[in-house]
Amino acid sequence: MIADENGGTVVVSVQHLTVRAKQKKILDDVSLDFESSSLTAVVGPSGCGKTTFVRSLNRMVELTPGLTIDGAILYLGQNIYDPHVNPVMVRRRIGMVFQRPTVFPTSIFENAAFGLRLVGEEISVIEKNVEEALRRSGLWEEVKDDLDRPALSLSGGQQQRLCIARALVTQPRVLLMDEPTSALDPAATQRVEATMQRLKEDYVVVLVTHNVSQAARVSDRIAVLHQGHLIEVGPTAEVLERPRNPLTAEFITGRFS
Amino acid sequence: MASATAGLGTDTAQDLLFDRSFRTRWRLGFDKVIGWVLPLLFLVAIIPILDLVYYIASQALPTLTWTVLTSTNPYDPDALGVPILSTAAIMLFATSLAVLLGLFGGVATAEFLPERAAGWVRMTANMLVGTPSVVLGYFGYFLLVITFGWGLSFVAGSVTLAFFMTPYVFRIADLAYSSIPRPIREAAYGSGARPYQYVLRVAAPIAFPQILNGVFLALAIGVGETAPIVLTTTQSVIFPPTIYSPVTFLTGTIWENFSQPAGSPSLALAFQAALILLVVVVALNILVRVISARYQKRLEGLYQ
After folding, report:
1. Which domain holds residue A6?
2. Are the beta carbons of A91 and B194 separated by less than 8 Å?
3. Would you give the DSSP letter of residue A62?
4. Which residues face A207 on adjacent strands?
5. What percent of chain A has pLDDT over 70?
6. CATH pick for B87-298 out of 3.30.360.10, 1.10.3720.10, 3.40.190.10, 3.50.50.60
7. pLDDT class of B224 with cuts at 50, 70, 90
8. In chain A, which residues have their Cβ closer than 8 Å to the Cβ of B193?
9. ipTM for the assembly
10. What is the mean pLDDT of chain B?
11. How close A169 comes to chain B (CA, Å)?
12. What is the DSSP letter of A107?
């Protein structure tokens, strides 16, 4: 592990990441480090590449045919794009939550246990980890008495917190969130944001959002993408109050989105 | 009365709410007429079907007894016991084979093949569905009966029928797997599922009602087929058949008997066989609706 100048541990290090679709560069030479116990918000206008960026971090980007990826992403010093690395293993270590709740049509328990069922974990371990994951995602108190209920009977916000629990159950160090509240109402959004606040104590959280005020509420650090370039990165308050790049200033004041 | 197009100057509430222009009145009237014409057209369409059912029933029922349905006595030429049991045996074998091939092919095409190759496979399946069954029957005859030397037999008939049914199962399996919401697929892979784990644990329960529909559809189509079976096997009065023995089939019984003289028991037998097929097909359709509706209920609210 590499300690940086602030004393934190760099868990994920993105180095010269370039993603192309045919001739067009979706991401152009992006380099960025993520430290333990931090929440970084990746913001930018639509089409800036922020979703592609976060999907690169656990090789989900490879499910989209026709993209070529250059550069390296180091997870605890190991390049996850090394030809010997199995993307399945990467995705088991780096969890992901999507724009809209994606629960499977099984029970609440089986949804949360999914990642451990995949590796054939013992039921006692599964039960323990499911409880912990549900506690961390802030859903435990609401569902502990009927874990066998169909997950689809939960509300949208509860479903999204179940998806967070599903991502946490394999005890990853990194949690990727791709606009996790874009389909939720304000009350559900608030609960998910509270969950994020708690999660950043123990995980590297990378939050993609188009919502600058959400980034202001929950993040320690903001990274701004514009047309595939990383144009600014810094502590949240600093970027929002004194943006160095004029494009950042335009974006956060809402002149384009 | 002001027309709608001249409404600019006269937009009182009455003019706006009670549009009495010629066009609007004509449309409303047309709506009414169509409301009467469509049910009439529906009646016109189902009259021949009802007539057919009535005709078959009127020819079949007078001499239909329990013995006709159940007797497997080889010396009783006017019984349906052997054809019914043989048909069940053939359908069991052919459906199992068709489901195996169609399901594997459909899943492979939807989930594992590159887009180009999948396109070719889908086109082939569509061509097979469009191929006249008599052509498949000849294919089965020349390949299985002659070249493989299986003779006019149970196995040649069932395998040919399975060829005929496979593209139906394939198309539905492919469709069912392809239409699983992409975010659900990504959530599974994002949790570290291997492709086979996605296919079996996540996709299978979602695709199941649709696939069940496809299997029953193939069964209903297969049980009513004549050409693939009369060309690859031949009538037999013995049940159970062995793998290489000839075997009879309900549509084969119709085929053999419907040219018999009017009033003969053999002609009635053809109508009785037809009635049984009708009942089986209708029952299968109802059954599949009931079962898949029950499973579909579990999927309510999936990725909305």
Report:
1. 2-252
2. no
3. G
4. A41, A177
5. 96
6. 1.10.3720.10
7. confident
8. 88, 114, 118
9. 0.87
10. 87
11. 10
12. B
